[in-house]
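Just scan my protein:

——
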Amino acid sequence: MSLRTLPILEIKGTPIERGRQQGEGACPQILRAIEHYREIIPKALNISWLDAIREARKFLPYGEEAFPQFVEEIRGIAEGAGVAFHEVWTLNCYEGLTEVRQQVWGCTCLAVRGEHTAAGHVLLAHNEDWNSIDRDDVYLVRAVPDDGPPFIGITYGPLLVNIGLNAEGIAVAINSVYPTDGRVGVPRILCSRAVLDARTIGQAIRACVPKLRAGGYSYLLADRHGELYCIETSATTHDIHYGEAGWLVHTNHYLSPRMQAVEEPGTYSSSHVRLNRARRLLGAQLGNVTAASLQAVLRDHVNYPNSICMHEDPDDPLYEREATLASLVMDLTDGIMWAAPGPPCQGEYTAHQL
């Protein structure tokens, strides 16, 4: 039996045109995601679907002020799929909708500079872990914008692409983190999307920390020159880690003491295990890292099912079943993305040229 691969959409043009093309091309995934989240949000966030839409509306003026082009892209996604804008907007605001404590979702990111790789290339790897109900809604997008560099990345349902690689050799991967200072503001997915518009690593860093942001991710950034940064953010503060040793790994808890001061209390056991396991596996490869060896890291099952290659636990409620939805290894030197549907132990990595 052949292994699964991820579908890919080709889009181009203005923000509204790109959005419409994404909405049309991914219409089944978008309709399915909206149907799922109509059921999930009342259980996961303790608010009704209509209340979630009302809460998400509060974020709109901030998004329009900071990144109007990406709000326009979201409008296009809604138009292309034939659904209401505010339903699509709500899902793009999902992580910032409430201060109610949520499950700690996983993601594992690794970046390595050329002196540690077999071919001298800069590589960035990422496992996208989220609710397993979204597994069949993941797809790749290859975009040629008229207002920014071409890029390739992943998304699911009606979400903006916010993990990927652009033609300037800049790549971004994200980890959800759990600060206590969340507020109404610029949705974090717009910030990550903005990184893919960056033409320099400095622009990429600034995209992660706009004023009046609602919250934040931990962003793992890299460029083709081997500049590696981890930007840990929350709504009101941030810290910057530089990859002086030529490699970086991040999962879902803060590493900076400054950021730990605003972190939601908890053990973050899966996050710590994945971080240390990924560091150990990467450390054993230094000097000979390849795309294939990073794929092996992303398929690791230590601490299963809460492993780097995350598998759902059938004992969890449906809205809390976590799994790796997609797995990526990006070569920033050659502009290639290897992408597999998750969990990656069950999928096939396929190479896509930017």
User: Anything to note?
Assistant: The chain has eleven helices and 14 strands. Residues 107-353 form a domain with the Penicillin V Acylase; Chain A fold (CATH 3.60.60.10).
